[in-house]
Every structure is written in C-alpha cells, then in structure tokens.
Design brief:
transcription regulation; Rna Polymerase Sigma Factor, Chain: A; transcription; about 0% strand; 2 domains; mainly alpha; sigma factor; Arc Repressor Mutant, subunit A
Length: about 170
C-alpha cells in the first residue's frame, strides 16, 4: 500500500488502513521515540500509542507541501516523546522533593542536556561537551583536535543556530 492510499484511508478513518499505517510507520516512530527516551524505556510503548493516535486524530492537518508524510509522522513521535520526557522529569523532580526533601537539579539538567544534544551531530556533540560541560577552552580543544579555533567557533555558531531553529518550531 502506498503513502497516498494510507493518507486517504486515515482521513476516511478506515481501521484496516490504520493497521497498514502501523505496519508501515510504527517502526520509524518507535525508533524516534526510543532515541529520545533512552533514560525512560518504560514509557516508550505508551508514547508510541499516543503518537499513532495523534496521527489518526490529526491526519487532516497533514500538509504534503510542508513535509513528507514520513517526516510528519516522525515529528509527531518526536514531540510526543519530548512531552513525555518533560513530564517524567517533572515527576522525578517532585519525587525527589517529596521523598528525599532535596531537589537535585543536576539530574534534570543532565537529562535535558542529553535531550538537546540529540539534535547535534556526533562531532558537534563532542565539541559542545568539551567546551560547555567540561569547561575546556577553544585553545585547548583546537590543539587537541588539530583544527583551528576559527573552525571550532564556526561549528559552535552553526550548531547553536541549528538548535535555536529546532526549538523555535
């Protein structure tokens, strides 16, 4: 079954087409969700179900001129996973407050940083970790990687712009 048939069937609320959709796109959505929820594997299945339901309920808002159907489905899964991650982090924060009478923001910050770093390439992630988490200077990193500081500045600037664009959507 091709993509256009699946889209038409979902718009008609045809449950047989829903099964075909799940067979065709659930793997992609599951991979996106698993990537975002590495720390919370216990909620992945629920987020997948929510994502599939969101596609079913919102299929009329899909616009083929803005993105491919595959990317639209992946985006829904990604945002559902991010929402679930935020919810879990708030829950864990409350749990720490109530049970231990402390709030360890470091745990939350590390999880949020990990989530943000998922949007970077492996090389940019390494550069960000060394500069912004480990506190290395551009000079130190330039010597270690045998690249000019200008290249590092450019990579950081471009990665920051990409992150800004990603989170302003």
């Amino acid at each position: 079954m091709n993509e256009k048939e699946i889209i038409r069937g979902l718009k008609r609320k045809d449950e047989r087409i829903l099964s075909a959709f799940i067979e065709e796109y659930a793997g992609l959505m599951k991979n996106v969700i698993s990537d975002r929820l590495k720390v919370f594997p216990n909620i992945r299945e629920e987020v997948l179900n929510d994502s599939i339901f969101a596609v079913w309920e919102n299929i009329n808002s899909y616009n083929e001129k803005k993105s491919s159907f595959k990317n639209w489905c992946a985006s829904i899964a990604r945002y559902k996973a991010i929402d679930a991650l935020r919810k879990e982090l708030r829950h864990k924060s409350c749990e720490l407050d109530e049970n231990l009478h402390i709030k360890d923001d470091r745990i939350l910050n590390l999880l949020l940083i990990e989530e943000i770093f998922n949007y970077l390439s492996a090389e940019d992630k390494m550069i960000f970790e060394k500069i912004f988490l480990e506190g290395r200077t551009y000079d130190e990193l330039s010597n270690e990687l045998s690249v000019s500081k200008d290249i590092l500045y450019s990579r950081v600037k471009r990665a920051r712009k990409n992150l800004k664009d990603e989170f302003e959507r």
